[in-house]
Amino acid sequence: MKRLVCLLAAVLVLAVTGCDRQAARPLQFQGVDVTGLQYARGFTLTDHNGKVRTLNDFKGKIVLVFFGYTQCPDVCPTTMTEVASALQQLGPRAKEVQVLFVTIDPERDTQELLRQYVPAFDPSFLGLRGDAAQTAAVAKEFRVFYQKVEGSKPGVYSMNHTSGLFVFDKDGKVRLFETTGQGPAALASDLKQLLG
Q: pLDDT (tens digit, 9 = 90+) per residue, 149-175?
């Protein structure tokens, strides 16, 4: 009987040790882990409903920040569509994620235009804008590149810009940089891990 008790105790210790090892396994992200980044710490911009917003407004949620513009012919709409699809894969937990589209073209992207464009991908998505100086300051804080490229006619232009998503955890700390074109499944996988 004493041997049986010792054997059961040994099995229990091994089982608990195995659980601890599994629990301590590091997260395996598809995006680039940028935990501890010393930039991309925040912003103050106005949303498409006219409300001034900061990153702190969204504490308690996973936050995705994408820099783009509404006249973008390819990368921006494709990325926003993929993000919407990734959120669908989360099911009810999608409510724990906030997507923010920050325009790098405040000259054309008015509050009203953002209000029409951004929620068309998902009603929960918010468009954010600032004036030229605010846009430059936020881009500098996030180290995002953007540049106006003049077209063939006066007043017609496009914007070159960094494409990718900054992902913040529920505590408002930047955790991931997701490059565009990975597809919704990869993003959904990373969001599920951050949601726990």
A: 998 888 889 999 999 999 999 999 999
